[in-house]
Write a structure and sequence with these properties.
Structural class: alpha+beta
Mean pLDDT: 82
Number of helices: 7
Shape: elongated
Length: 155
């Protein structure tokens, strides 16, 4: 019976093993703002646009963070790579993430907002790419369903 149900149980994406899932889950649990590769980021400033009076016209408060993927991806589990590349922040020509913020009047607040967006992007990639752990109760339920399906198809 196990030989017949094994392909169904292990229908994982190519290169996506249970060990990869477990390692990625553990990595995601320990991920926080301190794990961001801040020294690899290029930060530039420009004038913001929109309402704001003379401050918008005089001060370079808009922050733009550029992070080459060659510096980010080695520190992130491979399961997250495709999701990160599919993000709206990904610039294909430069193979980098480009994140900008201009919602605040202060440069430092906008830089913090860029890093917050980067952290949220990585967390979202983890939540969508990494499957949750199966509880023992759920595993037992699935096992019984496979056994029943096997008995019904092989009388």
């Amino acid at each position: 019976m196990d030989d017949d149900t094994e392909p169904l149980r292990n229908s994982l994406v190519a290169g996506d093993t249970e060990a990869d899932q477990v390692a990625a889950r553990e990595w995601l649990k320990g991920f926080g703002p301190s794990n961001l590769p801040k020294n690899s980021c290029e930060i530039s400033f420009s004038r913001s646009s929109g309402p704001g009076g003379q401050n918008v016209n005089k001060v370079n408060s808009k922050a733009m963070l550029r992070l080459p993927l060659k510096d980010l991806l080695p520190s992130v589990p491979k399961l997250l790579h495709n999701h990160i590349r599919a993000s709206p922040y990904y610039a294909e020509k430069s193979d980098a993430l480009v994140i900008q913020a201009d919602s605040n009047r202060k440069q430092s607040d906008n830089v913090d907002a860029c890093f917050m967006k980067l952290q949220h992007l990585i967390l979202a990639a983890g939540r969508s790419s990494i499957r949750g752990e199966t509880s023992p109760e759920q595993a037992e339920r699935v096992k019984r369903l496979y056994e029943c399906a096997y008995r019904c198809s092989n009388p």
